[in-house]
């Protein structure tokens, strides 16, 4: 699809290409909230059923071709118990969403889970619903949580048989993206005593859902959880931010939260105890979404040689030691072998030049 050039004489026209992504998802419903009893009930009262999510207008990456991709065509016959949710992802956009365009052909599995929720149970309506969606791609740095809000249907002729939501003339539930939280990193490593940054960002639709934003970072390790940092601020700058760091040296820039939705956490003076699963939770008014990532702490080994001086007169064994590293089961990989080899080569030449 090419966007027509409206003002070609300005030489400012940008044509970009977009495509639709169709994802097979699992719809997870709280059985208790729906009276349950539809057979698909698992342990804990949650029911799981199949659903389809169509992301419309996903922009292609700079060197991606759209060959072989076709726009989504809704089924010709409307089946009211099949759930197809459509969402246009242009504003706000989903960062890195071009990964989704070719995940299928690259054999990467896309995980997609949907669950209905109501941000304000007191103002629940039969014609509007919200869905929380989490999408990630196996083996790729792509992980996003979305909040979708259904769009009003002018003339309601059909409703989804189980959820009761009005269907569009093509039999789909049409929605817009209200909020996105993304990290795109599933695991990362930080060096002991160094600084590490855990990326997390958010976007919301315009006009904003609410002016007040809350960012909370927590960590979980071996079954225990603790809060790292909490930040409350207003996007309207009416009041200053309130930051509460419960770990020394933990930091989120309130300025960047407000200006660009960047809620990345900086941890300085990394300790072994900092290892764990980090959760970045963002709340905008009554809307809430989060991302999870794993932090490993490593200590690079100190490398030394068994001999200070190398005299090349007789055969000698040179041992390369590495010590003081973490985790202890780390394998000394080729990097250190190459470094060791280089040191030996340099020593050898120094010796020869003498
Ligand atoms: C987010 O903020 C951190 C500093 O807090 C910065 O280093 C990082 O580059 C920012 N990320 C983006 C995507 O702007």
Automatic annotation (TrEMBL):
Q: Which domain of life is it from?
A: Eukaryota
Is Signal one of the keywords UniProt gives this record? yes
Name the membrane topology term: Single-pass type I membrane protein
Q: Transmembrane region positions?
A: 334-353
The Gene Ontology CC terms held by the record are: external side of plasma membrane
Signal peptide coordinates:
1-24
- Keywords, comma-separated and alphabetical: Cell membrane, Disulfide bond, Glycoprotein, Immunoglobulin domain, Membrane, Receptor, Signal, Transmembrane, Transmembrane helix
Give a yes or no for keyword Nucleotidyltransferase in this entry.
no
Q: Name one GO biological process term.
A: cell surface receptor signaling pathway
- The residues covered by the Ig-like domain are 169-283
| Subcellular localization | Cell membrane
> Which InterPro entries did the record assign?
Ig-like_dom, Ig-like_dom_sf, Ig-like_fold, Ig_sub, Ig_V-set, T-cell_Activation_Regulation
Principal subcellular localisation of the protein: membrane
Q: What is this protein called?
A: Ig-like domain-containing protein
What organism is recorded for this protein?
Periophthalmus magnuspinnatus
Recite the lineage of the species. Answer: Eukaryota, Metazoa, Chordata, Craniata, Vertebrata
């Amino acid at each position: 699809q090419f966007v027509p050039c409206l003002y070609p004489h300005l030489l400012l026209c940008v044509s970009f290409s977009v495509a639709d992504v169709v994802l097979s998802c699992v719809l997870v419903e709280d059985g208790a909230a729906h009276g349950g009893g539809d057979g698909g009930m698992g342990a804990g009262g949650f029911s799981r059923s199949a659903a389809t999510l169509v992301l419309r207008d996903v922009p292609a990456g700079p060197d991606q071709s759209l060959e072989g991709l076709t726009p989504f065509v809704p089924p010709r016959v409307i089946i009211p118990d099949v759930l197809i949710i459509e969402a246009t992802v242009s504003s706000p956009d989903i960062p890195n969403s071009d990964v989704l365009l070719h995940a299928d052909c690259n054999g990467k599995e896309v995980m997609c889970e949907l669950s209905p929720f109501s941000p304000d149970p007191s103002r629940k309506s039969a014609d509007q619903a919200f869905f929380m969606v989490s999408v990630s791609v196996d083996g790729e740095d792509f992980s996003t949580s979305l909040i979708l809000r259904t769009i009003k249907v002018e003339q309601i002729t059909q409703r989804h048989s189980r959820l009761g939501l009005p269907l569009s003339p093509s039999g789909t539930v049409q929605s817009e993206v209200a909020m996105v939280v993304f990290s795109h990193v599933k695991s990362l490593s930080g060096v002991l005593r160094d600084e590490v940054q855990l990326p997390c960002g958010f976007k919301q639709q315009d006009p904003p859902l609410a002016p007040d934003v809350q960012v909370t970072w927590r960590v979980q390790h071996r079954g225990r959880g603790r809060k790292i940092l909490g930040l409350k601020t207003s996007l309207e700058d009416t009041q200053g931010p309130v930051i509460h760091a419960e770990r020394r040296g933990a930091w989120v820039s309130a300025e960047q939260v407000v200006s660009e939705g960047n809620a990345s956490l900086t941890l300085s003076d990394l300790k072994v105890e900092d290892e764990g699963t980090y959760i970045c939770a963002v709340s905008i008014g009554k809307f809430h979404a989060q991302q999870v990532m794993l932090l490993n702490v490593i200590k690079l080994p100190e490398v030394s040689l068994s001999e200070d001086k190398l005299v090349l007169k007789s055969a000698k064994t040179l041992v390369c030691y590495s010590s003081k590293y973490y985790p202890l089961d780390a394998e000394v990989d080729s990097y250190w072998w190459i470094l060791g080899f280089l040191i030996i080569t340099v020593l050898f030449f120094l010796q020869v030049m003498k």
